[in-house]
Inverse folding.
């Protein structure tokens, strides 16, 4: 088996007395989708932020294996190298499109930003890529010069995904990408994500409240509670045969709903 | 960096008076240190300038002093000039290209009185040129210093309001956002809609605001033989471009930078090359174009007395 793309060990972080992360370990392999589920406040967002280098843990390490084979300790990299990684090899899709889009910049500019940040200097090529990506996320390319604030919530989220994937990252962190959308819009977005993940061979760390989304997209899942990973395994195994009583409760409550 | 005089002991400087170099204005005023600023302040500014020259295009903070002018009237430029000027210098001051505006005249008079220096309107004769909003048409040469008055030194301030973030962007040479702005302009207007203070990359490393000169003047900054110094008084920043440094206006490969000039000839000297101001001549909508650089225009008119002059 090839080595993991990202490997975290012993991650701990507390906010005052609250243990947001308590000795968390996690690995993700190339092409794998891993879901992180758990109740509100269980530390999911904190975990994503620590894994992606946005937040420094009090203890523990995160190792990232670059395509060339070199391994980087994410929190020991220089800021410049980390930033380069964050906008080339990695992507981050936020729950609130406001955090992931520039609302005062056109859809085309939003998609083009990562290309320009990594050195693209041909307007026609950038615009071509933006047009292509609008189509891929099912937004009418005629909206290329429109501002995201004139887009619906679902479109904004699809635009955020296009803006993130345009540089063909290998690893994407998604924090409840379907949160705050209504059910039919959620379903369409999940289908889109599933298709893109398969096309591009992405690795995805997906934080979600939605057990159905985890079942649809994820190969493996982690269940978090109070900053700890209480259960981990293949998605079908965890959902069909939960071992931990908290997971049992979680699955039962979803089935009942 | 021979163009910037080394710090010199106050007595030496004080010993040299107005002598015969001043262009008619009485010698230096008694009671002021040469150049108005005290020697410690001048040393501090010179140290900042050395740092600025060593890192072309990088904004260096300095302890901006109160000057006998409000911010917005070139206090940054005046402090830089005050720190580098010596009695042998000959100073030219322009405001939007003109030597004869109230602002240019009062700054020139100020230095004639507090530094006892000679002044001139001739670009060729000046050793220091302090400017607001223009670069002279006559190419500057080695040994000259041009001092720009800068209202806002941060080229990213409209795009990124957080100062800490703009610093990080400079530290990491992370300037994609500036290109996003150019992209937006082309998408909306078909071209980059920046006619003043058009952003430049200095020495392939730092993004720099050239102060509100017209983009027409940008190419003059590239590999200029003269030393270019920039002073922002209110924002307390100094930056510099040493002689012969590459200064490139940002653009796209398929939308190359194009300096803009009114498609007309100067009504006074006939120049087809200089930067023009539009002047309204009457209240019936009559207007003409004339050179914004008054010295350049006068020189050309003098050389061809029977032609074009009105
Ligand atoms: N900046 C902060 N300051 C103080 N406490 C914080 C901060 N961020 C998170 N916490 C706390 O850390 C714990 C974990 O928060 P986190 O946001 O990671 O949870 P989550 O699982 O993402 O929750 P949700 O499902 O509501 O998004 C919570 O108790 C939260 O209140
Ligand atoms: Mg969260
Ligand atoms: Zn003229």
């Amino acid at each position: 088996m090839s080595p993991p793309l990202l490997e975290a060990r012993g991650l701990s972080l507390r906010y005052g007395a609250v243990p947001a992360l308590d000795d968390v370990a996690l690995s993700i392999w190339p092409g794998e989708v891993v879901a992180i589920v758990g109740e509100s406040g269980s530390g999911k967002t904190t975990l994503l932020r620590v894994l992606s280098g946005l937040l420094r843990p009090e203890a523990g390490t995160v190792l990232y294996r670059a395509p060339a084979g070199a391994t980087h300790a994410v929190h020991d990299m220089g800021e410049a190298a980390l930033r380069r990684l964050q906008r080339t090899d990695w992507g981050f899709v936020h729950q609130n499109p406001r955090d992931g889009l520039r609302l005062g910049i056109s859809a085309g500019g939003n998609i083009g930003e990562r290309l320009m940040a990594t050195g693209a200097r041909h307007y026609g090529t950038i615009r071509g890529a933006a047009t292509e990506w609008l189509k891929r996320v099912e937004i009418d390319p005629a909206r290329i010069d429109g501002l995201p604030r004139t887009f619906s919530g679902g479109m904004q989220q699809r635009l955020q995904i296009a803006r993130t994937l345009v540089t063909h990252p290998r690893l994407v962190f998604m924090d409840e990408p379907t949160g705050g959308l209504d059910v039919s819009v959620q379903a369409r977005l999940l289908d889109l994500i599933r298709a893109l993940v398969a096309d591009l061979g992405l690795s995805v760390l997906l934080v979600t409240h939605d057990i159905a989304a985890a079942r649809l997209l994820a190969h493996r899942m982690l269940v978090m509670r109070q900053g700890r990973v209480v259960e981990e395994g293949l998605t079908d195994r965890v959902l069909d045969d939960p071992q931990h009583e908290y997971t049992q409760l979680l699955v039962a409550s979803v089935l009942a709903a | 960096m021979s163009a910037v005089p080394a710090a010199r002991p106050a007595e030496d400087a004080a010993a040299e008076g107005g002598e015969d170099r001043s262009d008619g204005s009485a010698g230096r005023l008694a009671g002021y240190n040469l150049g108005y600023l005290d020697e410690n302040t001048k040393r501090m500014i010179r140290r900042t300038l050395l740092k600025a020259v060593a890192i072309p295009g990088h904004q260096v903070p300095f302890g901006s002093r109160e000057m006998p002018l409000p911010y917005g009237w070139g206090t940054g430029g005046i402090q830089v000039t005050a720190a580098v000027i010596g009695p042998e210098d000959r100073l030219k001051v322009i405001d939007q290209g003109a030597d004869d505006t109230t602002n240019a005249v009062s700054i020139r008079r100020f230095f004639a009185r507090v530094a006892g220096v000679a002044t001139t309107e001739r670009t060729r004769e000046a050793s220091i040129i302090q400017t607001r909003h223009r670069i002279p048409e006559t190419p500057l040469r080695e040994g000259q210093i041009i001092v720009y008055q800068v209202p806002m030194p941060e080229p990213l301030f409209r795009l990124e309001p957080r100062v800490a973030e703009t610093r990080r962007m400079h530290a990491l040479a992370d300037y994609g956002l500036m290109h996003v702005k150019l992209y937006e302009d082309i998408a909306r207007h078909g071209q980059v809609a920046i006619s003043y203070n058009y952003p430049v990359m200095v020495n392939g490393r730092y993004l720099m605001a050239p102060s509100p000169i017209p983009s027409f003047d940008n190419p003059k900054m590239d590999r200029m033989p003269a030393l270019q110094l920039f002073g922002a008084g209110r924002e307390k920043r100094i930056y510099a471009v040493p002689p012969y440094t590459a200064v490139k206006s940002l653009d796209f490969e398929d939308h190359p930078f194009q300096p803009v000039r009114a498609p007309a000839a100067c009504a006074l000297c006939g120049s087809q090359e200089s930067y023009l101001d539009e002047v309204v001549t009457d209240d019936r909508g009559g207007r003409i174009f004339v050179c914004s650089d008054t010295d350049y225009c006068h020189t050309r008119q003098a050389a061809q007395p029977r032609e074009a002059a009105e």
